[in-house]
Amino acid sequence: METAWGSCSEISGADRELFRRPVAVTHPSWSGLPMEMVILPGDAEVRDLQHFFPTLAVAVKGRGKRRYASGRSARFLYSAPSMFELYSPDHAIDQANWDGELGEVLSIQFPTAMVNRLLHAEGAGFRFATTHEMYDQRLTDLAVALWAEASSGSPRGRLYAEGISMAMLGLLIEEHGAHHPSNPPRRAGLSVAERKRILEYIDQHLAEALALEDLAATLQMSATHFSRSFKAAFGVTPHAFVVEQRIDAACKRLRAEPSAPLAEIAGAVGFSSQSHFTETFRRRIGTTPGNWRGS
Q1: From the DSSP assignment, how many helices (H) and strands (E) are in the chain?
Q2: Whole-angstrom distance, CA of residue 225 vs CA of residue 120
Q3: CATH architecture of 2-176
Q4: How many Å apart are CA 41 and CA 103, to the nearest integer?
């Protein structure tokens, strides 16, 4: 059996037909890191298991025992919700056994080209050692948040999804032993000229689906360095800043154009839909756009 994620052979057990079967996949419009929700088998045995890309696997549902054997060595492991594991692309298992509850696992791949694009770097790719039974609620929450965006068509926009992806990469690099060729360190913060340039760019492109890499490219920075520098300069993340700018622009339009449809205003300031606009406006202002305009 071979998929875009890896390969295996000789699948047996009560759940053999369910092994690596997707429970849910990303929305057709998703262009971010490859990910899918797959079955965690309760009763299965697989031989010659291998991953093709660096992979983060987050247990979402189900508990049980696992046995991974390679050559004469074997590891006895346990699966539980919120636990995650990292698999390097050269990691191979001769025989894997699962014994427990049927569950679900969120799998996220880190292809070289996509990671290089996010980090504005070049190199052999993103690498980490295979590790088992790890817990980091921050990483788990980021993975689940990214899945929510990927499976629903990224309603909060590309910039938000890329921000989550960058945060995941940062955690993996800083605290979980991942490695990627990095650019030489640069000073934190932005100069007056850089602030002016990025503010003008955001204002001119507010109605568009702003991407983190596009903002970074405006100042000829990597996405990682730009995110740190922007927060040091403005006190908030690029996504949070753009959302505030969109809300401010929407408020001005609501006052200036009292008869304009809310869907028209939402699109004019960069929200993907009227419902997303209303949800964000209520969260930031405390009431709906319609009520605010009529007050």
Answers
A1: 10, 11
A2: 9
A3: Sandwich (2.60)
A4: 7
